[in-house]
Amino acid sequence: MMKEALVVCSDKSLSAGITVWDIETGDHLLHIPTCASPPHGLVCLRNHFLVASQIQKQGSVAGGAIFIWPLNKPHAPLRNYPIEATGPLCCTKDGLYLAGGTLSGKVYVWEVSSGRMLKCWHAHKKALTCLNFSSDNSLLISGSNDGEIRVWSTVSLLDMTDFQSVTSFLHAWMEHQSSITGLLTSDISSSVLISSSLDGTCKIWDLISDKVVRARAFPLAITAITLDPEERFLFSGSSDGRIFVNTLDAGLEEENVVLSEEQSSMVLCGHKGAITALSFSLSGLFLISASEDCTACLWDVRNWAAIHNFSHKKGRITNIVVIPRSLLLPRMENLHKVSFQFRVSPLDKYPQPECTAKRSVTLLPKYCSLEDDHLMSGFQITDTMNQQIMDLEQDRTPEAIQMKVDTSVERRLWATSTAKHVTEMNKHLRSRLLDLMQSRLSCPLEFSTIGKRRQFGASSASPAGMNAENIQHTSLDLMQ
Fold first, then answer.
1. Which of 316, 456, 375, 347 is nearest to 80 (CA)?
2. Which residues contact 238 (CB under 8 A, 6 or more apart)?
3. Where are the domains of the chain?
4. Nearest to 194 by CA among 134, 154, 254
5. CA-CA distance, 343 to 49, in Å (whole number)?
6. What does R_g of the chain's alpha carbons equal in angstroms?
7. Which residues 6+ apart lie within 8 Å of 213 measured at CB?
8. pLDDT digit string (tens) for 165-209?
9. SS3 for 312?
10. 52-66: string of b/e by CB count within 10 Å (b at 16+)?
11. Does the structure show a pLDDT above 90 at 370?
12. How far is the CA of 267 from the CAs of 23, 124, 312, in angstroms?
């Protein structure tokens, strides 16, 4: 069975950093310094990078920060400083695009490989609290502090024809009465969306009919939600540390059915503070819960017993991510074993003007070998690419000179071939011209012979005696 690692972080202070444990043994594997991330601010990018938005100090007027750590080299982060503080983060399943929500209600979308900012727009009137791409990457779902949920088309977000255009949402709901704390999309049915809120409710939405098809009410604020890998149960963490386990029941036979707490199938008790995050192990055998009591708990799904507690003394845990433990291994020194690393670039601080965006060319491949001397050397930017292109255009490099020589040779071969073709055409025309001249010279002689033969004929003694048939034959002979 594949070994797994639990990644957690706090929002207390930057010195708290990121802590990594072995899930089964509880052994401390790694500590990454300088990280303090708000809820929903930590994501794993295609199992190669950890990406975390950083909290902003109280009263600070500076911009935000997003740090990116290669899992095989976690002590060399790529630091990005967007124009404003970023809260929730999410990425597409293929890791090509990263989205971040802010306190001002704006959403930013970046292309990971180039770092280019593709879109920036005012998505909500209040601060964003949750952000998530659908399982098929076709939708971006956002939730705000005032309880509003909006659904956006991913295709429209990638349209770079106008950065300043107002992006239109597909759906907008105000069914929740308080801040959104969780947004989940189904891997089985792309039309199902699950939301939770501090108003003590969880709602199941049908994106096709644009309606709530199930709603469950609790007497406490729901602070985190998750689904098991088979999507049979919905786990709802509350503000008092309890975790409610309910059958998902996402059937669409009945609409807007409200279920109470008494209809819950099971309640897990193991924390003394509000639940801050819920997740499942990659194997699906364990449920992991995090709490404001600075602990994370590992639950065995076969008997729902708490088998291990992880203590995080550096502050409450705001985010948990489960990754394969093998990703933490340093790069292989064996050159015969080649692996590939997903490439990221520094994120743009501002949207690029339309003309600049069209002129820039991304020449970097999406993957690079781990055998490179320095991974950070892969963090190249578009300006460097443009400089290389300019050098080629102005013949400053050996490659440019070689290209010029090759072009001259090709042009010379083309000129030679064209000259041969023209010479052959000239010979053919001269031959045709000589044939025509000989034909014209022979016509008067034939006419004279015909006249003499018909002048001394038995039927007529003079040219006036030629009939119409003879004249027609004579004309045909002249034409030939």
1. 347
2. 218, 220, 221, 222, 223, 244, 274, 275
3. 4-328, 398-479
4. 134
5. 9
6. 39
7. 204, 205, 206, 250, 251, 252, 254, 255, 256, 257
8. 667 889 999 999 999 999 999 888 778 999 999 999 999 999 988
9. coil
10. bbbbbeeeeeeebbb
11. no
12. 23, 34, 24
What are the distances in angstroms from CA 408 to CA 417, 455, 476? 14, 72, 56
> Could you give the 3-state DSSP secondary structure of residue 331?
coil
Q: How far apart are the C-alpha atoms of 172 and 208, rounded to whole Å?
A: 13
Q: 36 and 55 in contact (C-beta within 8 Å)?
A: yes
Q: Which CATH architecture has domain 4-328?
A: 7 Propeller (2.130)
What CA–CA distance (Å, rounded) separates 363 from 114?
A: 9
- Residue 63 has which token pair? 């911009």
pTM greater than the 0.90 cutoff:
no
Half-sphere exposure of 378 (CA within 13 A, CB side): 24
Angle 468-479/398-455 helices, nearest 10 degrees? 150
Beta bridge partner(s), residue 306: 299
* Tally: H helices and E strands in the chain: 5, 31
pLDDT at 352 over 80: no
